[in-house]
Amino acid sequence: MYYHNMAIPRIKKYLGDVKILMILRNPVDRAFSSYCHFVTMNLPGQSSFEDELKKEDNRRSNGWDFMWFHTGLGFYYEQVKAYMENFSQVKVYLFDDLINNPASMIRSIYEYLDVDSSLIPVFEKHNISGVPRSKLMQTFIFRENFIRAALRPFVKMVLSKEKRDELRLRLVKMNLQETMKMKSETREYLKSQYRADILKLQRLIKRDMTSWLENQ
Question: How far apart (Å, rounded) are the C-alpha atoms in residues 85 and 78?
Fold first, then answer.
């Protein structure tokens, strides 16, 4: 979505007028979740969330990967508008739909895609975040290193991919000591930054999104 100017022509060239499906999360929560994910993965160069926000413009100017644009990714209006102008079928859901009634939303997606809507998956949360107890352990879990490379052939022999994923998730949970919380003043600042974009977006997709601007 962020690189819609480049993505849309390529999608149309290779796939044609395909169905587009989007799930949008409150941009304030999305920005903080993005930061928390980076902290959980123990990526180098991390500072406080507030300091990371101050660095964003400079990183964008210097060609950093778009995933570092914690706030920039959340200005959805122009992104969604571009897809709606270029494709005849665009379906937009809110992350709130997934949280409040996941089965209903999944069924709606299946119907939109013309696939069997009777199959409802098991809903489990796998994406967790927090402050690592041991940065060394977190580096071992998330980044390639010689120990992992040496152990990989033996682990694959005795554990299926499903079991390996379960083990990895268990290790991550064991190594997280606390969840992170956004400062109330930072939330208010971000809401003010996103307000105009959210109001335009709700008119575009015809959804009431005032809850994104309320106190949480």
Answer: 10
Q: For the whole prediction, is pTM greater than 0.85?
A: no
Distance between CA 1 and CA 96 in Å, rounded? Answer: 19
Q: What is the pLDDT of residue 40?
A: 74
Tokens of 68: 């570092």
- Taking the C-alpha atoms of residue 206 and residue 190, their distance in angstroms, rounded to an integer, is 23
Give pLDDT tens digits for 198-215.
999 999 999 999 999 886
DSSP state letter for 114: T
**From residue 177, how far is each of 12, 29, 40, 43, 172 by CA, in Å?**
46, 21, 11, 17, 10
CA distance 206 to 21: 16
Q: What angle do CA 38, 96, 92 make, to 5 degrees?
A: 95
Tokens of 178: 């606390």
Is a pLDDT exceeding 80 seen at residue 109? yes
Nearest to 198 by CA among 88, 79, 101, 37: 79
- pLDDT per position as a tens digit, 48-69: 899 999 999 998 889 888 888 9
- DSSP label at 68? G
Contacts of residue 1, Cβ cutoff 8 Å, sequence gap at least 6: 7, 22, 73, 76, 79, 80, 83
